[in-house]
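Morning - calcium ion inputs below, output right after.
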Amino acid sequence: MTIKDKILIVEDEKSISGFIKAILQTNGYDVITASSGGEAFSMISSHCPDLILLDLGLPDMDGMRIIEDVRRWTMLPIIVVSARNYERDKVEALDKGADDFITKPFSAAELLARVRVAIRHMRLGAAGDSVANSGRFTVGGMTVDYGRHQVLIDGENVHLTQNEFKIVALLGKCAGKVLTYDFIMKEIWGPQVRGNNQILRVNMANIRRKIEKNPAEPQYIFTEVGVGYRMAEGD
Ligand code: CA
């Protein structure tokens, strides 16, 4: 018998909570639920969940407080479940240490994929351990070769500039997770970089022209509108 992963759903809307719970239980997860921030804190300390699915709009507190508090003592994965058109919330949640977000309404497949990625990243420890072991990241026809500083499409080097390579390399190390514009900018251009994303967008347009068959419909690097970019999960 395998030990089930235990997921805490923090959500005050019963219908959404019930929907998520049913999907997760059907797919072999143990599920516990909390309908307020206070309840969430006591569940976290008494039940030690493996992952938290967190609604930000709770009756007794802002879900951001839960992210901040949990991040003071554990890397327990947190996926924010948020309504559409709250890009600023998503960015803030990710910058405070949430691992990912799911936008309502969402499909069962999407929810399960995000949960799998977050739990796997936690198991692997620091992001990039799988890359560190193999020196490569591969998804479909694309390979990022970290040792040679090359990105190959169907075996051909696509000749990225240094910054373009750094961006793809960074996204590859965190594949499956969304990285905010601000986070990527600081990693590539340093902490003093200003908040304008233009330079990143130009680089991404050039990257897509080089690696994607159809840059308007990317299959490797996806845009999370108003939030950042996400590399497709590796093979
Ligand atoms: Ca709510």
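Note: The chain has nine helices and twelve strands.

O.
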